Amino acid sequence: MHALTLPAPAKLNLMLHILGRRADGYHELQTLFQFLDYGDELTFSLREDGQIRLHTELPGVEHDSNLIVRAARLLQTQSGCRLGADIRLTKRLPMGGGIGGGSSDAATTLLGLDHLWNLHLGEECLAEIGLSLGADVPVFVRGHAAFAEGVGERLQPVELEEPWFLVIAPQVSVSTAEIFSDPELTRNTPAITVRSLLARGGHNDCQPIVEKRYPQVRNALSLLNKFVPARMTGTGACVFGSFPNQGEADKVRRQLPADLPSFVAQGRNISMLHRSLGRLAQEVSA
Predict the structure, then answer these.
(1) Positions marked catalytic
(2) CA torsion angle for 97, 103, 106, 112 (degrees, to 10)?
């Protein structure tokens, strides 16, 4: 195989509780991840000279600083692989949106190049590599809806309903570091169990801070709340509401302002990246 195209799906944080601040400055948290059937797309082409070339520019992101390039080079280093890749990105997920664009791209790069380079390192190893790139990368590497603890790296797979979501993407990039450093951020939410979470639901401790700092997010939440209970994912800026079917989600989307970016997608417990890899494995074995 000399080329491979794979999706990099979005995720939603269905809740995000901040339990406290650790000695290293990071925060102990609990969150619930679910994937969406919507995201970026990456194409990897094999190079024999060991070079990693990303041929898609992102505004304000240097080539060597892009998580895609960093993931590919880290995989080379950890595996000792001397092969390289040309990489092309179709970007659909907003940057700073809280739906995992950069982390998902990095995870797809690790899994895609592991396949293209015939490394067969396995999810455990790839998730460990991914954690050094970002706390959200391992959940994309593992590809299953999960309850996460620690800084987001301790994952417990869960089976959730798979509703349709309307996601609004206010045209603002929210800095995660800025939100987590805000002195008014709630940092003492009591820990809960998966069972109690699934029974009673949760909330997002970051949402009040983001609403206060970013009127675009506050306005989007207010707008969506007219139709369904609206929530923010991660540290924002994207907000979402759930619907029992695609038709009802599309109906509300048509009532939103034309200049407000949004999309409709189904929540999935198995990511479309892993479903694509599963089909690829079946084709190879056949």
Answers:
(1) 11, 136
(2) -100
